[in-house]
Each structure stands twice: as structure tokens, then as C-alpha cells.
Amino acid sequence: MINVTRTFLPPLEEYTRYLQGIWDRVYLTNAGPLVVELENLLKEYLGVRHFFYVNNGTIALQIALKALDIRGEVLTTPFSYVATTSSIVWEGCVPVFVDIDPETLCIDPTLLEAAITPRTQAIMATHVYGNPCNVEAIEEIANRHGLRVIYDAAHAFGTQLNGTSVLNYGDISTLSFHATKLFHTGEGGGIATNDDELAHRISYMRNFGHNGPEAFWGVGVNGKSSELHAAMGLSVFPYVEQLISRRQELSQLYDEQLDGHICRRPLLQPETSKYNCAYYPVVLPSEKVLLTVQNNLNAADIFPRRYFYPSLNTLNYVTSPQPMPVSEDISSRVLCLPLYYDLSDDQVHQITEIMNASL
Ligand SMILES: *Cc1c(COP(=O)(O)O)cnc(C)c1O
Q1: Is 84 in the pocket of ligand 1 (CB under 6 A)?
Q2: pTM for the complete prediction?
Q3: Is 152 near ligand 1, meaning CB less than 6 Å away?
Q4: What CATH number matches the domain at 239-358, 3.90.1150.10, 3.40.50.300, 3.30.1490.20, 3.40.50.970?
């Protein structure tokens, strides 16, 4: 069976080596030495001023909204994983959808201003499939209207824009280290910011607001991660560049072998200086074609994923649904093809043959 993704696991001994230390110390969580080591390593790799390793990418989004004290309307993309919208709703804010650019599939900055009301406080946009948003246009609008910017960078680990980490844009960026992501710690996530004051708030918020054992800075939540998860991260991290370069090779193979007249690929933001190849999405001519392709692949035990589907403006807990024609159209006919470290060239060939014959 070939699935859309397959978690990369390092040689078992490289993980168990860390376990020995955990057993010796009998210390499993609360900013343990492995959590601190991983946090520092990632901060340096990602090239950001402040970085917090937390227990998942959804709590990272929730803490970002809390740290910025957002309570009103949040302009957001309908084309993302459900956590982007659900975290806004969960924090008692109102998602206001802004449609996507049909080429990059990221939020369309030319539509942002029309959605701004006196209650708008922030923009939460996703670097879709690791492809950076048009961050300059977004920043310009945010500055003009006094809005804060949060990037859901769950897909963008390692992506660079203008020679610097994409996490350096916006007030806060969040990451996910879920087992299906490019870099993972089993479950896990991250919060990046270059703002000292925000970093100060986040450092308390992710640890119940504790200021010493008996004092509290303010309200907080449990965003901490454990030594067991950090050990996974530390043993996966040395392979990150290899994981990215193998994905680049496989993506290029797909590009060469797929019938490009029929499978359209999203356009990369032109200033992207390093793309992490987190996913391999193709936009098919219609949902009917997508279903045919999916059936034919499934019959050969190959399971691509309709990611992202459905468009988030259609969720049943969105109280004032707005039509999002571009996002709804793309969601109905986008498919992520299998892409992972140990996918073989032959398997890509098998997948593209079935696809080309279905089109
Ligand atoms: C995976 C993902 C999340 C959620 O991350 P978890 O670590 O699973 O909580 C949020 N946003 C996007 C775009 C994602 O792909």
C-alpha cells in the first residue's frame, strides 16, 4: 500500500539512546533538558529570535491568538486544515473568510481590505503546502489598518523567502510537528516570534501562567511538551536536510512524468528562495476527473488525499457562511499525491502512469 505520507523514523537505537538519559534522570516533562536542547536547535535552524516548542500545532495557534489578545474578527483563509478555523472559533473570535489566489492557493491580499470592519483585529493566513503567502502585501495592509498578523506555518518548516526563514514575517508564526509533517516529534508544534514582549507573554502562557511554583503571571494553558517527544525530535532532526532533498527529487520526478496539460501545479511565491516540498498537490480539471483518478489509484492500493477538502467556509459551526468561489472550486479538485522520504522512483512512475491513463 502507498499512502499519501509515511512518517520518517530514524534508526531505533538513535531514539533509545535518548531514553537511557530520561530513565537516568527520571524527569519527563516541565522544560526538561531534551526539550530545551530541541528548542535551541530549532531556533537556530529556523533563524528566529524566539522559538517555543509546544505540544501541538493547534495549541500554538490558540496561544498566538491569546498572546496578541485577539477577541474580534479574524480575516482568514478558507483553504487550510480545519485547525486554522477551529482555533479562531475555539478562542471565541469570529473567522471572516477571504478567498484565495487561484495560482498560489494562499489568501488573496487584494481581497483583504474589502473584508475589514471596525471589529477586525487580525489576519491569520496559512503558507499553504509550505508555499509562502504574499507576506509583503499582507504586511502593508495590516500596518495601514492596525491589524496583527499570525501565519499558520504548519507546512512551512525550512521554507525560506528572500533568503530568510518565512517565520520571520508577521507577528507570530506557528508550526506543527505532527507525525505527518515534514519534521515531526510524534505530536508537537512551535511558536516563533521576533517580538520580545510577545515572547515574554508566550513563555508564561504555555506553562499555566506559572511565575515560580507558587505565583502566577496571568492565565495560561498547558502547552508544554515532554522529553519523550523531544527525544523523537532530536533523533529526527539530523535527517531534515536529507528529507527535504529527497522530496525535491521526487517532486521533480512527478513534474517530469505527469501530463502537465491536465494536472496543474500551484505557483510558488516568486520570492521563495528555498521551498521545502512539504506536499505534492495537483489541481485537476474537475471533481469528476479527481474522483476517477482517485478510484483508479485506490484500485492499485495507492491512497492520495483530498487535502484540503472541504473548503472551511462550509464548516457547520461557521455562523455566517460566505461563499468562497475560488477556494470551493479548488478544494473540489485538488489532490495531494504520495510524497515521503522512502517513496521510490518506481512508485512515482507507477502513480504517474495510472494518473496519465485516467486523464
Ligand atoms: C497539521 C496542521 C495544523 C495542526 O497541527 P497539529 O500539530 O496537528 O495540531 C494546523 N494547521 C495546518 C495548516 C496543518 O496542516
Answers
A1: yes
A2: 0.97
A3: yes
A4: 3.90.1150.10
